[in-house]
Design brief:
Strand order of the largest sheet: 2-3-1-4
Oligomer: single chain
Number of domains: 1
Order of helices and strands: EHHEEHHE
Largest sheet: 4 strands, antiparallel
Radius of gyration: 14 Å
Number of strands: 4
Number of helices: 4
Distance between the termini: 20 Å
Strand content: 25-35%
Length: 117
């Protein structure tokens, strides 16, 4: 199965065929908003890395309109096991991107892992 793009060309999940997702919250200072959105948005560094695996179903990048600099990412995968396998295989690449991107945020918090119902 291939990634399904939303109507706006983003990498969000339109068919909700993923069974597993994880959610992160980020606080981004104004000087880093553009770099953050580029890295975490459609076609960004994370999306490009995750697309190396056919079990990746897309990422939703959400911006809070009420609280400036607050973002959520929701990464969708076919299964928890597929996601873990990807992370195990691409740990070095994942860590390299994470080191670069941590400079864009003031804080980040893993909200949790979820399964579709």
């Amino acid at each position: 199965m291939t990634q399904q793009d939303d109507k706006n060309g983003g990498s969000g999940v339109s068919g909700r065929q993923a069974e597993f997702c994880y959610i992160w919250e980020f606080q981004v200072p104004p000087p880093h908003v553009e770099a953050f959105e580029k890295a975490y948005g459609p076609g960004g560094a994370w999306d490009q890395l995750f697309r190396l695996d056919s079990a990746y179903r897309g990422t939703d990048l959400l911006r809070d309109p009420q609280q400036r600099g607050r973002y959520l990412t929701i990464d969708h995968w076919a299964t928890r096991e597929a996601c873990q396998s990807f992370h195990d295989r691409y740990r070095a690449e994942f860590d390299a991107i994470d080191r670069v991107c941590e400079a864009f945020t003031l804080a980040e918090c893993h909200i949790g892992d979820f399964e579709m119902v």
